[in-house]
Specification:
By secondary structure, the protein is mainly α. It is 70% helix and 4% strand. A hairpin with a 2-residue loop joins strand 2 and strand 3 (30-31). Helix 2 (39-61) crosses helix 4 (97-113), helix 3 (70-89) packs across helix 4 (97-113) and helix 6 runs antiparallel to helix 7. The chain starts with 5 loop residues before the first helix and ends with a helix. The model has no long low-confidence stretch (mean pLDDT 90).
Length: 266
């Protein structure tokens, strides 16, 4: 299944997205124009979202006050866990924060969980189905910085909207130019606020991307060991379960913290 070039080619092949150029052609596999789409990231994240949230909607439609099914128990446990974290962290009034937190936690978790599937299993199946044995396709969406930045920038815009909704335009501008040093140092306050707000989506995106990319790289390196990979792959997969859960939880909690900061005034 590996691409030409031995070990280096194998690694590069696994870390290459399926790119579709929207306004140009490819030169050496790279789009020459500005607009391009990572088709694998869009397809896998979209399909996972439809499946997992379709399942949750199905469980909600079949929910009963009597003896619950295993699926209902699982969904209630996840929703209850996230809802409790939001109650403990977010002290404002908003019907958006809890659904947003549930969506982020569940979606990021299932996208991260694709990392637990053996690195050659899905690519080999796809290449056999298409007949193209050099087809690049990344099955872990969160190893693509375009996705993690897309999610973090969305959180950033929701945070701005929350500030305006709770404080109004005047209150928001007053906070930007007066906190924390007072109106006399308005330019300094503004610079600090810009740096602080820009750092939020950047750190949010890079933290998730960096951890998942590193985890995927370790799985790829283990796969190169051939017959010796099993004693290493299983322990790393078990440890990685903690990583994928923790990264989904951290992304969710930071989002809730940002919403809480937006809903509070100095």
């Amino acid at each position: 299944m590996s691409a030409e070039g031995g070990t280096a080619g194998y690694i590069q092949h696994h870390l290459t997205n399926l790119v579709v150029c929207a306004d140009s052609a490819k030169v050496d596999g790279v789009c020459t124009g500005f607009w391009s789409f990572h088709l694998d990231t869009l397809l896998v994240s979209g399909i996972l979202g439809l499946v997992v949230f379709g399942f949750m909607a199905l469980m909600a439609s079949k929910a009963t006050s009597g003896v619950p099914s295993g699926g209902q128990n699982f969904v209630e446990m996840v929703v209850g866990l996230v809802d409790q974290q939001v109650r403990d962290t977010f002290h404002g009034k908003s019907a958006l924060v809890t659904p947003l937190a549930i969506t982020i936690f569940v979606w990021v978790f299932v996208m991260n969980a694709m990392d637990l599937i053996p690195v050659d299993f899905l690519p080999v199946a796809l290449q056999a189905a298409t007949g193209n044995h050099e087809l690049p396709f990344k099955f872990v969406p969160t190893t693509d910085p375009n996705l993690t930045f897309g999610m973090s920038i969305t959180v950033f815009f929701i945070m701005i909207w929350m500030n305006l909704k709770v404080k109004g335009l005047g209150g928001y501008l007053h906070e930007i130019f007066t906190a924390p040093f007072g109106a006399k140092l308005a330019p300094v306050n503004f610079i600090f606020r810009v740096v602080e707000d820009i750092a939020k989506p950047i750190s949010l995106a890079l933290r998730l991307f960096g951890n998942m990319y590193a985890g995927e790289m370790v799985f790829i390196l283990i796969a190169l060991l051939g017959l010796y990979q099993l004693p290493l792959a299983l322990p790393w997969a078990l440890f990685h379960i903690l990583i994928i859960t923790l990264q989904a939880f951290v992304f969710m909690m930071l989002t809730v913290v940002y919403m809480s900061m937006a809903a509070e005034s100095h």
